[in-house]
Amino acid sequence: MAAPVRSATAEPWRDPSAQPFVRIEGVTKTFGKVYACDDVTLDIYRGEFFALLGGSGSGKSTLLRILAGLEAPDQGRILIDGLDVTHLPPYQRPVNMMFQSYALFPHMTVEQNIAFGLRQDRLPAAEIRDRVRQMLELVRMPQLAGRKPHQLSGGQRQRVALARALAKQPKLLLLDEPLGALDKRLREHTQFELVNIQERVGTTFIMVTHDQEEAMTMSSRIAVMDTGRIIQVSTPAVLYEYPATRFVAEFIGGINIFEGRVVDSDEESGQVRIQCDALDAELLARHTDPLPEGTSVSVAVRPEKIDVHETPPERGTVATENVVVGKVRDIAYLGDVSIYQVATGAGAIVRVQETHVARSSEPHYDWDDTLWLSWEAASAVVLTA
Ligand code: ADP
Ligand code: MG
């Protein structure tokens, strides 16, 4: 998982007195029998780089189009900067949208593409010249001002589309899969650049993506969507460490999920004991609310939170709250890390991740090696939904 690149900023969503900049209130949109958006309520704050993350067809683009005014909701309201824009046409909203296809005019130069919206708005010529120059500098393209789109690389076209969208100085910029047309290497580079530009201009960005790594790397907060609903809204770190549901846990990063039943919960320590038949073990996990005995739950543990031992771990030296033994069934060497699949006697597969620090520490476990796996109660998340 890439480290978040965002600099530390205030977290207005933690401040109960902070006014949201964008308010989505109970928005529902159906197409025939399909609920593209199903009672969506969401607050977004000024200056955020907010991501709508979900699989294909989860309703992300529909929600973005409703914000832009390209689609009318069946129910609910949209407020931007305190103004109810629900019934305003797109051009009367302080919003601009950047499409995945970029939709650049092929017969116009870079400069003319960026100036297009400003000319339509009949801005004075000097103002247009100034803004186009600023935008060209912002996206580092002054030397390419005279080129046509077909004379540009994919990454350069993406930057022109961004410059054109920002030239109108919208209060809110909507980006639908903004990096979707770029290949993997260019996408990673462009992620950093886009965050950097957003921080410099300070405009509120709402981005749609199906790529969890992209959302994690770029966003201040993420709303995870599934079948038109918002499942969880949080910072990348909280989504990763404290997924609220199994769907979120499995959608964001790699994770082990073990089914089990609650044996008992200790309110004082906040620990729950869970019988897990597939591991033939009792697991200890942290959970804030007490759970009744017998409740069906899942225990989720990230592969990198699991320690690997070649002999049974001794109490007191390492975490022995959860210990499972198994044999190596598969090894994936990924350069910086190796992922081992360890099969337990009861038939469960546990994925563990070992980070390579020095060259000499490259995969040192082999197929059929017996390994003891251990993790702390605090590293496991109990999922009830
Ligand atoms: P996403 O952007 O997350 O892939 P969309 O918002 O495009 O999802 O679509 C959500 C659901 O609404 C899908 O089932 C899609 O088929 C449906 N849908 C979206 N737009 C239309 C439309 N104009 N007509 C009919 N169905 C639509
Ligand atoms: Mg879409």
From TrEMBL:
<keyword id="KW-0472">Membrane</keyword>
<keyword id="KW-1003">Cell membrane</keyword>
<comment type="similarity">
    <text>Belongs to the ABC transporter superfamily. Spermidine/putrescine importer (TC 3.A.1.11.1) family.</text>
</comment>
<dbReference type="GO" id="GO:0016887">
    <property type="term" value="F:ATP hydrolysis activity"/>
</dbReference>
<dbReference type="InterPro" id="IPR005893">
    <property type="entry name" value="PotA-like"/>
</dbReference>
<dbReference type="Pfam" id="PF08402">
    <property type="entry name" value="TOBE_2"/>
</dbReference>
<dbReference type="InterPro" id="IPR013611">
    <property type="entry name" value="Transp-assoc_OB_typ2"/>
</dbReference>
<keyword id="KW-0067">ATP-binding</keyword>
<dbReference type="InterPro" id="IPR008995">
    <property type="entry name" value="Mo/tungstate-bd_C_term_dom"/>
</dbReference>
<dbReference type="GO" id="GO:0005524">
    <property type="term" value="F:ATP binding"/>
</dbReference>
<dbReference type="InterPro" id="IPR050093">
    <property type="entry name" value="ABC_SmlMolc_Importer"/>
</dbReference>
<keyword id="KW-0547">Nucleotide-binding</keyword>
<protein>
    <recommendedName>
        <fullName>Spermidine/putrescine import ATP-binding protein PotA</fullName>
        <ecNumber>7.6.2.11</ecNumber>
    </recommendedName>
</protein>
<dbReference type="Pfam" id="PF00005">
    <property type="entry name" value="ABC_tran"/>
</dbReference>
<dbReference type="InterPro" id="IPR003439">
    <property type="entry name" value="ABC_transporter-like_ATP-bd"/>
</dbReference>
<keyword id="KW-0813">Transport</keyword>
<dbReference type="InterPro" id="IPR027417">
    <property type="entry name" value="P-loop_NTPase"/>
</dbReference>
<feature type="domain" description="ABC transporter">
    <location>
        <begin position="22"/>
        <end position="252"/>
    </location>
</feature>
<keyword id="KW-1278">Translocase</keyword>
<dbReference type="GO" id="GO:0015847">
    <property type="term" value="P:putrescine transport"/>
</dbReference>
<dbReference type="GO" id="GO:0043190">
    <property type="term" value="C:ATP-binding cassette (ABC) transporter complex"/>
</dbReference>
<comment type="subunit">
    <text>The complex is composed of two ATP-binding proteins (PotA), two transmembrane proteins (PotB and PotC) and a solute-binding protein (PotD).</text>
</comment>
<keyword id="KW-0997">Cell inner membrane</keyword>
<dbReference type="InterPro" id="IPR017871">
    <property type="entry name" value="ABC_transporter-like_CS"/>
</dbReference>
<dbReference type="InterPro" id="IPR003593">
    <property type="entry name" value="AAA+_ATPase"/>
</dbReference>
<dbReference type="GO" id="GO:0015417">
    <property type="term" value="F:ABC-type polyamine transporter activity"/>
</dbReference>
<comment type="function">
    <text>Part of the ABC transporter complex PotABCD involved in spermidine/putrescine import. Responsible for energy coupling to the transport system.</text>
</comment>
